[in-house]
Amino acid sequence: MNGSTNWPAVSAWCVVVAILSLSPLAAPAQQAQPTHPLDALTGAELHQVKAILQAEGKLGPAARFHTVDLDEPDKAAVIAWRPGASLPRRAVAVVSEAGTVHQAAVDLSAGRATAWQEVTGEPALLLGELIGATDIALADPRMVQALAKRGLSPAQVFCLPLTSGNFGREEQGRRLLKVPCYAKPKASNVWARPIEGLFATVDLRTGKAIDVTDTGVVPISTDPWGYEEAEVAARSALRPETSAASLSQPGGDNIASEDGRFVWDIWRFHLRADMRPGTVLSMVEARDGARWRSVAYQMHLSEIFVPYMDPDQSWYWRAFMDSGEYGFGSFLSPLRKGVDCPPYARFLNVTMPQDDGEPIRIANAICLFERSIGDPAWRHYELVGLAGQNPKPPAGRPASELVVRSAAAMGNYDYLVDYVFHQDGSIRIAVGATGVDATKGVASQSMKDATAAADTRHGTLIAPGLVAPFHSHYFNFRLDLDVDGTANDFMREHLVQQALPKGSPRRSLFAVTPEMPATEQAARSRIESGSPALYHFANHNVESALGHHPGYMLMPEGSTVHPMLAADDPPVRRNSYLHYQLSVTPYARDERFAGGRFAMMSDGSDSLGAWTARDRPIANRDIVAWYTLGFHHVTRMEDWPVMPIHWFGFTLMPHNFFATNPAMTIRDVK
Fold this sequence. Notes:
The chain is mostly beta strands. It contains eleven helices and 34 strands.
């Protein structure tokens, strides 16, 4: 950044308070001591980062912290770490002031900065920039005049600054936000009254609106469309009261803590939250008898990409990289007992830095809970060989699972992310999309209106005067799988039809044809139902008693989503990994996010697609899987006013990892 605008220091929740007039949901961070080398930075450590940089003369009064993260120790050192040993605590911070951006490396153990380097690229948004952009837009005379044409004053609206991507047009040398606005809500739903066809383009460097676009007045919806219970009841009768079905665990949970990791059933793992990915799971291990075996070193969300499908001047640029531009972890929201998580769940607070570098705590940001939904882990009823009139009941065991859940409010959408640990050795990663559709104001009140065909060319009329434009949701996860060690291979097993020789009673069957890609380009995989395959990550340096090599298999579960966009579309160039749902790279410490180090206004030159273009070797070495899932959202009336939650996910399933079904040792019901 080359500007000198001084943005206020605020937390994510202050933005919500300022824009939506809600109550604050965060509290000052409590102090805690790290017990594991991968523990998140504590409130005291965040304060220490700032104090060290101030003491060394790196910070002026207007310094703002875009990110402050744990600088993880080397992977080999973490794997070798044992309780009681100590590893240096380090942090890395991206700081802007006086028109420049620096990345600082801070050794917290030594109490000094070890690097202070000017960097290029646009770092994640400051939350103060969001508020500042609103003030800039509403102070511009062109915006005031355009609002007056609609019978509104700046005091009667609120604005939603949005990232605008990189289209190779007006972006050069600037740090831009687009600022559309809404008429202030009459009820709980703040998204029901868009001021269509009007937005400002704000340059955060200069602190000025470089343009105000006004494509013409569109009537503003008058229905408040509130979603609180009393508001819903005013529109339609609530359902009769019923006897609630609920989960309970009166004996307490079976979750333990050991050396900084959670332990449950056959699983143990480390857990923290970071500003960009949100929940980060590390050191994931499964117990096989008396032995703990490595499954994954780390798993976390890598990027969220949400492109809208409307070419309108007010919409074409809406192609958001939510994690890289805003920060999924920065917008984690408190989880509600009895709604987001069962009342008996364990709730964890997380600590995040504010714009001024000082810590703030988000209460109940993560929950952990066991659940049994009445499904068996396995069962069998023996029909063969039974004698007499007293057959035995079916053999089987009840299934339980451990859920690690968080939720982030990314503007109008809410996304839940679950890591679900099963007793059969599998891990399911799932995303739940809910919240409120982004709405476009239109003239049409029904599909019978003369304007309806044009108004709904790129979306669905979900309420009178409101269209929800079509869009897609892509979620990329980084999976640093270390199956029984760091040296792994990636394998595809293609299911192919095999013709049988003449004279065989059968004409055909399917066979499995294995393939072991040796480089990144060969490993890129388009997952299509017409070309079935299995996707394995195995350790060929280890053998089981039967001579198999232990592995884990990625099961897409129908969660694959094929991009319906051209490769040269500017938003896709920034997210070129979309064309291959699965990529595999050699482990690289600094390659954590598919959208690159600095996603805002990026051009794709530092991204997963660019990394795999190097075609590095991946055979028998430390490798990382990157899997993209999601869905194309063709909107519908039932999405409004709040979308029913839509779950999609994938599973990591053991493949010749255990000698038998690990769920056999579950105790029977009493």
